[in-house]
C-alpha cells in the first residue's frame, strides 16, 4: 500500500542509498534529488543515477548549486582531504561544507512542495552528527519548523516531516539494514577523494568508515579500493 509521496536526498553514497531503499520499503512513492554542488567527488552523481535505477526510482533529478563560490571546505576548494585520520568524529572536519544540509534540505523542500509531498528523507546518522553539526537530530527537527513556516504548503496546513531512518545506526548497522533491503552497494560511492569512477581511495574518513562498517557487519564489501 502506498504511504504517500516522499522525496529523498540522494548523494549516491551508502547512507543515502539505504535511506532511499527504506522509503521504498515503507511504501512511499519515491522521488529523488541529487545536488551537483561543485564537489571534488562528483563521481558520486553517477552513483546516484545507478542507485536510482537499481531502486526503480523513475523521478530522479539532479540540480546544480555551485558551492565552490563560497568554498570553506576540502570538498569544494583546494584544501587537501584528510587521509588516515585516527580520531574520526572528534571534531568538525575540514570536509564539512558550510551549511550544506541547510541548503540541500531547502531544495528538497521546494521539490517536495512542487510534487505535493511532505515527507523528506535524508541519510544522516550518528557517525555523521558526531562531527557534522547539520546532521544532528536537533537540526533535523528544527528544519521541520522551517519547512512549515517558510512554504505555502506549510502555511496552508501541511506538516513536513524529516525522516532520518539511519539516525541512530552505526555504519555496520546501516550495512546490515541495507542488506536486508537488498541494496546494491556496488552501485554506491562514498569516497571524498576518488581516484577514478567507482574507485574508493580507501584512506579518507568516508572510506575508512565504510570499510569498517562492512567488516564489522560481516558482510562482503563489493567496493573497489585504490589502497
State the secondary-structure class: alpha/beta
Based on CA inertia axes, which overall geometry fits?
Answer: globular
CATH class: Alpha Beta
**Helical amount:** 25-40%
The CATH superfamily is HUPs
Q: What's the CATH topology name?
A: Rossmann fold
Strand content range: 5-15%
Run of helices and strands: EHEHEHEHHHEHH
Strand order of the biggest β-sheet:
3-2-1-4-5
How big is the Rg?
17 Å
Note the total helix count. Answer: 8
CATH architecture: 3-Layer(aba) Sandwich
What is the count of β-strands?
5
User: What's the structural domain tally?
Assistant: 1
The description of the largest β-sheet is:
5 strands, parallel
Which consecutive residue ranges, at least 5 long each, have pLDDT under 50?
none
Terminus-to-terminus distance: 45 Å
Mean pLDDT: 94
Amino acid at each position: 500500500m502506498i504511504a504517500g509521496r516522499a522525496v529523498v536526498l540522494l548523494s549516491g553514497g551508502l547512507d543515502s542509498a539505504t535511506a532511499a531503499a527504506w522509503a521504498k520499503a515503507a511504501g512511499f512513492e519515491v522521488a529523488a534529488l541529487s545536488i551537483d554542488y561543485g564537489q571534488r567527488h562528483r563521481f558520486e552523481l553517477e552513483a546516484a543515477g545507478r542507485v536510482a535505477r537499481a531502486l526503480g526510482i523513475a523521478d530522479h533529478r539532479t540540480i546544480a548549486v555551485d558551492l565552490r563560490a563560497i568554498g570553506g571546505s576540502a570538498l569544494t576548494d583546494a584544501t587537501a582531504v584528510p587521509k588516515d585520520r585516527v580520531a574520526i568524529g572528534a571534531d568538525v572536519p575540514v570536509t564539512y561544507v558550510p551549511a550544506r544540509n541547510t541548503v540541500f534540505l531547502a531544495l528538497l523542500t521546494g521539490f517536495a512542495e512542487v510534487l505535493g509531498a511532505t515527507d523528506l528523507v535524508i541519510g544522516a546518522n550518528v557517525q555523521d552528527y558526531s562531527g557534522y553539526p547539520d546532521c544532528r537530530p536537533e537540526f533535523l527537527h528544527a528544519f521541520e519548523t522551517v519547512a512549515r513556516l517558510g512554504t505555502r504548503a506549510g502555511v496552508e496546513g501541511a506538516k513536513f516531516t524529516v525522516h532520518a531512518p539511519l539516525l541512530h545506526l552505526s555504519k555496520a548497522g546501516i550495512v546490515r539494514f541495507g542488506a536486508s533491503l537488498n541494496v546494491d552497494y556496488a552501485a554506491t560511492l562514498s569516497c571524498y577523494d576518488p581516484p577514478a569512477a567507482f574507485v574508493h581511495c580507501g584512506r579518507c574518513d568516508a572510506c575508512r568508515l565504510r570499510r569498517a562498517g562492512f567488516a564489522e557487519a560481516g558482510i562482503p564489501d563489493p567496493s573497489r579500493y585504490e589502497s
